[in-house]
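haha ok so turns out i had the wrong file open the whole time. this is the CORRECT one, sorry everyone. sequence first:
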Amino acid sequence: MKSSIVKRSIIIDGHKTSVSLEDAFWNDLKEIAHAQQKTLSELVAKIDVTRQQGNLSSAIRLFVLDHTRMGAGEHK
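then structure:
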């Protein structure tokens, strides 16, 4: 099976960066941002400043996983 990891560009605090994410994580991230009434850039900036370690792509995956496990209601 071919990996669906895609490199995507996003602007965080005025700086362009890229993340490599599978379509499923990217789509879930967009849904979370919409549900929280935030832009994708705002949500990724929040993830970026709160990550403990690792790269931003990994931090996003862990955020989406945690959000899903928590029942999609507690990340404000």
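Strands lie at 5-12, 15-22.
again sry for the mixup
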